[in-house]
Amino acid sequence: MKKLSLSALLLFILSLAHGQETDQKYTPQEIYQKASYVCRAETIFEIIGVDSGGSEVQLSLGDGASCFAVTYNGQKIILTNAHLSQPLIGEINYEVQSPTGTTQGKLQSIKSVRNLMTLVTFKNSENQYLIAEFQDIDEEKDLAKLRLKKQKDYERLPTGILSPSKKIQVGDRVFNIGNPLGHKFAFHTGYISLILPPSADEPYRAIITEEMTGPGNSGSPLINESGEVIGINRMYMVINPHFSRFIHVDEIKKYLEKTEK
Fold it and tell me: pLDDT for 96-128, tens place per residue?
């Protein structure tokens, strides 16, 4: 059996410590255990609207989705989707409790929406909440960063690494960890079905997989067998629910390079 020299072993360990890619492959169970950098993001919105009786109502609304942290160019960064900076507003029914009883109502119109904060929890420390806010929103590519309010929180932030695009091919086995339908850190596995170039409708390079996501999985990472991030979930494809769409890692790197300037 071929053995690694001490110097080669040290180089391998150092490459992991500095966030460099590796060709080592892991089992699905190992991928899930190592993905401590996957997080859940619950954004709290203040909504002021008018109810069916014409009265102004102020509500707080929590909207949960997914995120993940990476080390890129020596910086720890939390990534998610830009569209999560605004609530998905449909019909809003509310319930207000007071000493005299419970009042129910429905908003007929929205006057204003304010993003108050985002609570971030990581996979291996679900009981610890970090307070964050949206930063560097790119609505066209649907990418955004989450900036932690306390700088010292970055010291204990677990991070993954971004894969080089040369390692991504149709037929590759891939994994996704997210928060679909309120289920925390659900694990999915599948294969890359297509890699699409930018188009007029979707101005970014995309990776299409078998169905791996659902509502609440926006912002979650697509992971290869080496445990590296190769994409970020963009949407659940309602038109064809048998497939999921992820923004290619090359687009993530372009976004990070642009926002560093």
Answer: 777 887 878 888 888 899 999 999 999 998 788
Q: Identify whether 73 is part of a domain.
A: yes
Q: Which residues contact 206 (CB under 8 A, 6 or more apart)?
A: 195, 196, 231, 234, 245, 246, 247, 248
97, 145: one domain: yes
Q: What is the DSSP letter of 163?
A: P
Domain ranges, residue 68: 38-156
The string of pLDDT tens digits covering residues 181-233 is 888 999 999 999 999 999 888 889 999 998 777 778 999 999 999 999 999 99
CA distance 197 to 239: 19
Q: How many domains does the chain have?
A: 2
Verdict on whether the full-model pTM lies above 0.90: no
Nearest-angstrom CA–CA distance, 189 and 128: 27
